[in-house]
Amino acid sequence: MGGALVHAVRGRDEEGAAVLHEAIWLASEAGDRETAVTAHRELGFVDVEAGRRQTAAAWLTKAEALASTDDELASILGVRGMNASDMGDYPSAFQHLQASIERARRCANHRQEAWSLATLARAHLLRDERSQAVAALARSLELVHAEHWMAFLPYPEALKGELDLLAGHIDTATDELEHAFALACQLGDPCWEAMAARGLGLLNATRGDHATATAWLSEAHTRNNRVTDRYQWVSPYVLDARIATALDDHDDNAGQLIDTLASLAARCDMRELVVRAHLYRGRLGDPAALASARLLGAGIDNPALNRLLNDPH
To answer: How many whole angstroms separate alpha carbon 288 and alpha carbon 293?
Structure first.
């Protein structure tokens, strides 16, 4: 029940967390190790989505200490990798996600393998490592289709659309992003809707249609924020695209959007997005912003970010 409440698309994390705490107590009393592992992992997942990094790490550490099977460890390491990627800690993210994928393969947990591969692809996309992202997504999508896992499909499909857009495959990207958005709307999943809408915004910006791009990016922001228990990383990811488009279009709202991005990214310990907020302030003429960005970005292992820091224009 706790897991079902946590993963419900309409956001019932608080209620789910209360049930999971009760499950841990009962599992401890009964000596039920398997249930305790699951409950600790799910509480870690709740805190990862909410951007509570330290408590997420604590729950996941307890889950990993209790775990003994490949199936259990595959899911725990997948969430660990997600948390590390959100924070911009790519070496840890790759380590956890690769281990998750390997364990998922050993125990034939195809959905976990697909999930971890999509999260791995996202990390490669953020680092502009396109060939690695394409390979991971191809396998993830193959598994998703084989499993008929339609509830998850919009996520890797939206990522694939963004990759095809970067490669200049406009027609393919259009089909993928439109399908991802339509399916996400059918599912009623705000996070997947926002990811696909973000991609459609970037697609229209590439076409030079800034008005439509801005409308799609605003729609992405609205859809993701319509529930309280949302995946917090998606909001600044959408804001990042909105700001880039606003600056290109000389939109007077860019400064306010940058402040929102900086505040949200700092609160949820998303260091790379904090750095990007400083870079955007630099583009608006703040003389100290680039120095701050370089100082904060020094410890982030991301070639794409390093290129921006060295040549912010």
So the answer is: 9
CA–CA separation, 312 and 128 (whole Å): 16
- The total of other beta-carbon atoms located within 10 Å of residue 256's CB is 12
The answer to whether 249 and 283 have CB atoms below 8 angstroms apart is: no
Q: Give the side-chain half-sphere CA count within 13 A for 139.
A: 18
Residue 251 is given by DSSP the state -
- Amino acid symbol at 173: A
The neighbour count for residue 130, using CB atoms within 10 Å, is 13
* C-alpha–C-alpha distance, residues 169 and 158, integer Å: 14
Alpha-carbon separation of residue 27 from 77, 134, 204 (angstroms): 22, 41, 51
Q: Among all chains, which residue has been given the structure tokens 């319509």? A: 226
Q: Which two tokens stand for residue 39?
A: 């409950």
Q: How far, CA to CA in Å, does 243 sit from each of 51, 209, 312? A: 21, 16, 15
Write out the two tokens for 178: 């439109």
Name the pLDDT band for 12 (thresholds 50, 70, 90): low
Write the pLDDT tens digit of every residue in 113-133: 999 999 999 999 999 999 999
The pLDDT score that the predictor gives to residue 154 is 97
Task: Tell whether the torsion through CA atoms of 57, 62, 68 and 72 is positive or negative.
Answer: negative
Burial of 131 (0-12, 13-18, 19+ CB in 10 A): exposed
Question: pLDDT tens, 249-273?
Answer: 888 889 999 999 999 999 999 999 9
Token pair in block for residue 180: 């991802």
